[in-house]
Write a structure and sequence with these properties.
By secondary structure, this protein is mainly beta. It is about 0% helix and about 40% strand.
């Protein structure tokens, strides 16, 4: 579904983008939206491709009239393999829209969380560029071995597209890596050297935000044995980053996001511990890497089923969105109803 926001903070009626019985629902891998330079919109979702638990594809549709009508559905991944494909993210290019996603076409026959590659290959990171008429302009591999199910992120910077993801070394270190999808040479490089060694995917990806030469990054790690949320700022389009700052070291859950104000100041969000439970927390990150005190976005605790809270900038408002699991209204054993909640904050 696609919601249209009215003036005054109210939400309009939702319009249907896609319906069916093959959706692959997952608390960590969810639909997304990207905007082309001409204002067209691409929405993606996941749908089953086979009988395996993780057999699903990335599907998409494009609207060229602000969501009033939608073109035919198409596949972002076209390999035809009954395997895992997902965790897509978008960023505009000069002529179209770039998409990165985790592509499991090489993993068939390997257990989803297995560290043993004897029966299959590794999860890969792929990139494709689409034009607003649906034309696939190009597609290629960015990294041939990455973490299996952590969210990806991508932004447009003064130096071109920049993507971040959780990488996977041959010795199972899973720190955050950067890559420029449209560079002359594809050369992934480390953003963090946290030293987190784990033999399964932590399902906790990084986040990027950018305005011109300013780029901010946030991520979760347990490198060193203690969970923490970390962040860093770049002043040269993502080529180099200022020293990393620890945003939260009090046993946070992670699930980060970040939005950048016109001033270049960033707002980092994550799930962190507070009195009585886990809350959506936030902190402003200055352009020089200075971190301001954290505060709670939500007055009540957030359950694990609350998924991955998102933050976006809309005019002079910062919009926070998350899934709230409600009470079991009928007193029976049916799953409790849930809903998407939003909170607004005006920036100065």
């Amino acid at each position: 579904r696609l919601d249209h926001r009215k003036e005054g903070g109210a939400w309009g009626e939702a319009s249907t983008v896609q319906e069916g019985k093959t959706f692959w629902r997952n608390w960590a891998d969810f639909p997304g939206l990207g905007v082309f330079p001409d204002g067209s919109v691409m929405v993606h979702w996941l749908a089953r491709s086979g009988e395996g638990t993780y057999d699903y594809n990335v599907h998409a549709r494009i609207s060229r009239d602000g969501g009033k009508t939608w073109g035919d559905a198409f596949l972002v991944n076209t390999d035809g393999k009954k395997a895992e494909h997902g965790f897509a993210s978008f960023a505009p290019t000069d002529k179209g829209l770039g998409v990165v996603w985790l592509d499991g076409r090489e993993t068939k026959g390997m257990s989803h969380d297995s560290a043993d590659h004897s029966s299959g290959g590794a999860m890969t990171l792929r990139f494709a560029e689409f034009l607003s008429d649906g034309t696939r302009a190009r597609e290629f591999v960015l990294d041939s071995k990455v973490c299996d199910c952590c969210q990806t992120t991508m932004v447009s910077t003064s130096k071109g597209l920049l993507a971040a993801y959780r990488d996977r070394s041959d010795t199972e270190f899973r720190d955050i890596t950067l890559v420029r999808p449209l560079a002359e040479r594809i050369e992934p490089r480390e953003l963090s050297k946290d030293g987190w060694k784990i033999n399964a995917c932590p399902v906790n990806g990084p986040a990027l935000a950018a305005r011109g030469a300013l780029v901010s990054a946030a991520w979760f790690t347990m490198g060193g044995g203690k969970p923490k949320v970390r962040a860093a700022v770049s002043q040269d389009g993502g080529d180099t980053f200022l020293p990393t700052v620890d945003v939260d070291t009090e046993f946070p859950t992670g699930r980060v996001d970040v939005a950048m104000l016109p001033s270049g100041v960033s707002l980092v969000t994550w799930l962190g511990r507070g009195e009585g439970g886990v809350f959506i927390k936030a902190a402003f990150l200055e352009t020089d890497g200075t971190l301001k005190p954290a505060f709670n976005v939500t007055p009540t605790t957030i359950a694990r089923t609350g998924g991955f809270p998102r933050v976006e900038l809309s005019g002079r408002e910062i919009v926070f969105a998350w899934t709230e699991v409600g009470p079991n209204l009928d007193g029976a054993t049916t799953p409790p109803p849930s809903r998407v909640r939003t909170s607004l904050m005006t920036w100065k």
